[in-house]
Every structure is written in structure tokens, then in C-alpha cells.
Write a structure and sequence with these properties.
It is a single chain. This protein has about 170 residues and is α/β, with parallel strands linked by helices. Helices cover about 35% and strands about 20% of the residues. It has one domain: Alpha/beta knot (3-Layer(aba) Sandwich). It has a seven-stranded parallel β-sheet. β2, α3 and β3 form a beta-alpha-beta unit. The mean pLDDT is about 95.
């Protein structure tokens, strides 16, 4: 068994064909604090083929050079922006379901929850999670079960789990 470069493997498999039948997801992150997490979210959105990434908060609060470095080549492959908008429907538009990745009293396990085809995922900040106001604007709230002693995931890791679970579900249809 020999190593195969990812571009060669995925060039043969063409996983982007998923988007011939399913709308591209949107990713929203609420007031992330670290440039590394912002860059990781941009890279992740590029990896999954997302429509765009919206970061709630003020762009002036961040060092763009660090974000660009963390995002690497993905920074130019996908639209990403900061917004002070607080009404998620104004960002997402009509037709997309808004799914929060969060621990809350009404959350369901992501692996037991059918995820919508036309979706916008939202994650909260590293320390505060999503506010009650943003949670109330979501159509679904899902959690990721964490069996280890550290019971919280890095925000970009949580988004990765959710996006690739969404992809798995869409491919199974």
C-alpha cells in the first residue's frame, strides 16, 4: 500500500459532486477570540466546500495577518467576512435551516438528528458559547457527545465534526 496525495485521491473520487444535489452549507461563528480558530474555520469551510463563513463581531478586534496565516491558501478560496449583524436570518436568508452546535437543554445528539440539506451551522465563542438570543433564532440545536475527561471541544473541531456528519448524512440519502 503506497501513500497517495490527497489531491490525487479526491480528484478521482470527486466528492464535490455532492453539491450537484445539495446546497452548499454556510458557517457562522459568534465572536471568536483567537486568530488561529478564525483561520481554522476558514480552512474548514474551504475543505467542506461551504458557501461562505460569517464571523459575528468586529473585524478591528483581530489581527488579519494572523488569521490569513492560519487559514493558509484557503483565505483566497472562500468568501469570509465579519458582520455586526445580530439577526441570523439577515445573514442566512430564507430557505436555509439554522443549526446551532451547542450544549443546551433542548439540544439533541448530532448523530441521532437528521440534519437539513440546506443548512447554516453556527458555533459560539471559545469561552461563552452561543448567547440565548442567538440560540432562540436557531431551527435546531445539536450537541456532540464527548466521552473523554475534557468535556468541551475546540470550536473549529466541533464545526468539523458537524460539517462532516452533515456530509455523511447527505451522501447516505
Amino acid at each position: 500500500m503506497a501513500y497517495l496525495k490527497s489531491n490525487d485521491l479526491f480528484g478521482k473520487l470527486s466528492p464535490e459532486r455532492l453539491y450537484e444535489h445539495v446546497p452548499r452549507p454556510l458557517l457562522i461563528a459568534d465572536h471568536l477570540m483567537t486568530p488561529d480558530n478564525i483561520g481554522a474555520m476558514i480552512r474548514l469551510a474551504d475543505n467542506i466546500g461551504a458557501l461562505e463563513v460569517c464571523f459575528l463581531g468586529n473585524e478591528d478586534d483581530h489581527r488579519l495577518s494572523k488569521i490569513r496565516r492560519a487559514a493558509a491558501s484557503s483565505r483566497d478560496n472562500i468568501r469570509w467576512y465579519f458582520s455586526e449583524e445580530t439577526h441570523l436570518r439577515n445573514i442566512v436568508g430564507q430557505g436555509k435551516a439554522i443549526v446551532a452546535i451547542e450544549t443546551s437543554d433542548n439540544a439533541t445528539c448530532i448523530y441521532d438528528t437528521p440534519l437539513p440539506q440546506n443548512v447554516a451551522f453556527i458555533v459560539g465563542s471559545e469561552s461563552q458559547g452561543l448567547s440565548e438570543d442567538l440560540l432562540a433564532q436557531c431551527d435546531k440545536v445539536v450537541y456532540i457527545p464527548v466521552p473523554g475527561p475534557t468535556r468541551s471541544l475546540n470550536v473549529s473541531h466541533a464545526a468539523a465534526v458537524a460539517l462532516f456528519e452533515w456530509q455523511r448524512q447527505m451522501l447516505a440519502k
